[in-house]
C-alpha cells in the first residue's frame, strides 16, 4: 500500500512569509544572509537558530535557500564525521562558486549534539567558511561554547495553541476535510507548541478515520505524549534523539516496550532491520526482567536505551508518515461494548479458575489469544477448563472458522472426560465399561450446535449473573481439583 506523503512535508511553508509567528527571527535571518550576498560577510559567520522542536527552524532554512538561491547542504551534528563533512563542503562550496555553480548554505542540525571534543575544530572551520553556516538547536546553552562564541543567535518562539489551531485548520481546508473543533483544540493543546507533532497527530486522526480519532483522543489524557515520542523514535536514526524522545512519556518501561514492539514492523520494512530492532527489544526485556527480579531498578535506564536508541539505529526506516498503533493490551480499552463484555467475562473466568489477580488475568488473555489463534488443540483444553462459550471462543480466536474447529475439539474433550468419569464410576460399581467412541457424526453434531448458537444470539449477562456463574464455575472447579488432585496452570496447557 503506498504511503501518503507526510503532511509536515506536504504543508511545509515554501516561503519565509508563510512561516507563522516568527517574524522577528526571520527578519534577523534575512539581514544576516543579505550581508553575505552583498559581499560583506557578517562578523559572525554562523547562525544558531535556537528554539523548541517544531517551531519553524528547519523550515526557515529551506525557505531562505529557495528565496535567495542557495543549495542546502544538510549535515547532522551527531554524525561521527561532521567535521570532515563540513570541511569538505566549506572547500567544495568555495571552488564551485568560482565555477559559477549555485551557492551553498551549510545547515548543521542539532548543534546541541556536537561533541565538545570536536567543537574547537568546527569553530576554526567557521572562521574559514566562505559560505553561510546555519545551525539549529533546541537548547542553545548545550551548543559547545567555542561554537556559540562564533555564532549569532536567533531565537525562535514556542508556537501558541492559537497558532497551531490556525495552521491545522488551514491544512484541513486544503485537504477538504472537516473535524470537530474540539478535536483540533485537543490536538493543539497537547502539542505543547510543537507544530510538527500537531500536524502528525492531525494526519493520524484524519487518515485513521473516526474510530482512530477516538483512539488518539482517548489515549491523550493518560498517555499524553506517547504517540509523539514514538513518532520521533521511529523518525530518527540518532541514538541520543531517540533516547530523549521518550523522556516526557509518563509510562513504565515495560509498557513502553509493548508500544515500541507493536510498532516496529510498521516503521521498518527490511526483515533484517526488523530483526535487529527486535533483538534490541529482547535485550531491553532481559534488563527489565532482571530489574524486576533483583529490585535493581537502575537497570531500567539500560532497558530504555535499548528500546529507544537500539531500535532507532536498527536500520533503514520506511520513508513517509509512520502511524503509531497502540499495543493490543492497551487497545483493549477501546473495544466496543460487546467486546468489552466478552473480555470481562473471560477475565473473570481466568481470575477464578487460575487464581489470578486482574492484571495477571489481563496479561493471560493475551497469551490465550495467541494460543487460540495458533494452537487449536491447546485452545480446546482451555475452553473446557474455563468453561468458555462459543462467543468467547470467537473473541479469543478472532476468526469464526478457527473458533468452529476449537469448539468441535472441545466438545470431544468434554465427551472424553465424561466417558472417563463414567468408566471410573462403572469400575467402582464393578461393571464392564461401555464402549464409547468419538465418531465423525459427533463432530458434525458439534458443528450443528455451533450453528444453533450463532442463530440465537445470547442475551447480555448482568454483572450479578456473571458473578454467580463464576462462583458456580469455581465450585465445580474446586470439586474437579479435589478429584484430579492438582490445579492446572497456563503452562500445563502450553506443554500439551
Ligand atoms: N512557524 C511555523 N509556521 C508554519 N509551519 C510551521 C512552523 N513551525 C513548524 N511548522 C510546521 O512543522 C513542521 C516542522 O517544522 P520544522 O522542521 O521547521 O521544525 P524545527 O523547528 O526545525 O524543529 P526541530 O528542532 O525538531 O528540528 C514543518 O514542516 C511545518 O509544516
From TrEMBL:
SMART domains per UniProt: AAA
Record CDD domains: AAA, HLD_clamp_RFC
InterPro entries: AAA+_ATPase, ATPase_AAA_core, P-loop_NTPase, Rep_factor-C_lsu, RFC_lid
Record keywords: ATP-binding, DNA replication, Nucleotide-binding
Domain of life (superkingdom): Archaea
Keyword Nucleotide-binding set for record: yes
Biased composition (Acidic residues): 434-466
Domain AAA+ ATPase: 43-160
GO BP: DNA replication
Residues annotated to bind ATP: 51-58
Location of region: Disordered: 421-485
SUPFAM superfamilies: P-loop containing nucleoside triphosphate hydrolases
Gene Ontology MF: a single term: ATP hydrolysis activity
Subunit structure of this chain's protein: Heteromultimer composed of small subunits (RfcS) and large subunits (RfcL).
Family classification: Belongs to the activator 1 small subunits family. RfcL subfamily.
Job description of the protein: Part of the RFC clamp loader complex which loads the PCNA sliding clamp onto DNA.
Name recorded for this polypeptide: Replication factor C large subunit
High-level lineage: Archaea, Methanobacteriati, Methanobacteriota, Thermococci, Thermococcales
Chain's gene name: rfcL
